[in-house]
Amino acid sequence: MVSTSPPPLNPGYARPAAPLKAAVIGAGYWGPNLARNFKSSPDWKLAAIVDMDMARALKLANALGDVPVFSSVEELLAETDVDAVAIATPARTHHEVALKALHAGKHVLVEKPLAASRELGLDMVDTAAELSLTLMADHTYCYTPAVLKIRELIEAGELGEVLFIDSVRINLGLIQPDVDVFWDLAPHDLSIIDFILPGGLRPEAVSAQGADPLGTGRSCIGHLTFALPNGAMAHINVNWLSPTKIRQMVIGGSKRTLVWDDLNPQQRISVYDRGVNLEKVSATADERKASAVSYRLGDTWSPALPEREALGLMVAEFADSIRGHRPARTSGVAGLRVLNVLEAASRSLENQGQNSFVADNEVLLEGTR
Ligand SMILES: NC(=O)c1ccc[n+]([C@@H]2O[C@H](COP(=O)([O-])OP(=O)(O)OC[C@H]3O[C@@H](n4cnc5c(N)ncnc54)[C@H](O)[C@@H]3O)[C@@H](O)[C@H]2O)c1
Q1: For residues 347 and 339, what is the distance between their CA atoms, to the nearest angstrom?
Q2: CA separation for the pair 81, 85 (Å, rounded)
């Protein structure tokens, strides 16, 4: 079966002397962040920058020192030898670029979303498994100190049973030419939920509602809801049209509630010892109505979090998963779980928000890395 609980970060074996060689493909907005982190990592040598726009590739290569540049993945594979590639091109190109690199024997890191469709993502996961290569998704938030702490608190039972998750990711965003707001922003929320819940992201069905009040041709405002285990519920609100920026996730638990405000560096996480207790669970409906409800109003605390760049930890995890021959914490399969939900959300949108079933990977992916 596919493992849902990833191994610990950096398992602690001695780092080999020779760094692995990486090429970053895509030198637009996000690629330079990856390149900078590969360049400064002791695990990696940044061996090449690739962009079909050579001016962009050269600008980045010059900013980082003397890094060779190439204008296509074919040119890269023909002219230099790398162990791995990191793909930061638009989502519609991920599958084609990744397949070329995998068939050339390279390990692959792919930006979110893993692919432009579930079918293409599944092909990438299958191909990497057949060739015994690492396929990792850059679910960047999963490497932030805040999300690592949230995962730890849930795993330690500090919040109790998760009762609800409410995630808000709204701001004035770039209206993307090829994807709607769900495919652009919700991969973040979905990958975080996949990472922090012990069972991962496995809803049976999702319901999505979107709006396009400016007539751009795609949803710019999106609401996504799905059930979590034991009657709990998750809601994700993504929006490109909000003049105020909010990055907030509330995780309500039977013991405590956690609020993560990513825009508040002084207190990103607050844990509230507040909640509702149902004193008596009675057999009949009438008795239940009479059950006593009480409210806990306890302390609030804020865990100290180290200041650390997530991408530094992410590239270290990529190297460790390659060297350890194990799935990365945010593996291709994790990327596929996110695609499953996004695709179901798109179907729900077409059906005016009706529940849409989410595909299940388990049978198809038995034994994959
Ligand atoms: N992890 C995160 O937090 C995060 C943040 C932003 C973007 N992203 C993801 O990063 C990816 C890139 O987004 P962006 O905003 O940097 O895009 P961008 O358009 O700014 O840059 C993409 C670059 O890829 C190049 N390119 C396109 N196709 C190519 C190909 N076949 N071969 C070589 N070069 C090619 C383009 O010339 C361009 O320079 C997307 O998947 C996006 O979702 C992730």
Answers
A1: 12
A2: 11
Is residue 22 lining ligand 1, measured as CB closer than 6 Å? no
pTM of this prediction?
Answer: 0.92
Nearest CA to ligand 1 atom 40: 90
Residues in Cβ contact with 234 at an 8 Å cutoff, skipping those fewer than 6 apart: 164, 165, 166, 167, 193, 203, 225, 226, 227, 228
Binding site membership of 140 for ligand 1 (Cβ less than 6 Å): yes
Ligand 1 pocket, mutate which of 29, 37, 195 (most atoms under 8 A from CB)? 29
> How does pLDDT run across 179-192, given as a tens digit for each residue?
999 999 999 999 99
DSSP string, 107-170: EEEEESSS-SSHHHHHHHHHHHHHTT--EEEE-GGGGSHHHHHHHHHHHTTSS-SEEEEEEEEE
Model confidence pLDDT, tens digit, residues 32-47: 999 999 999 999 999 9
Name the residue among 3, 60, 2, 67 with its Cα closest to residue 26.
60
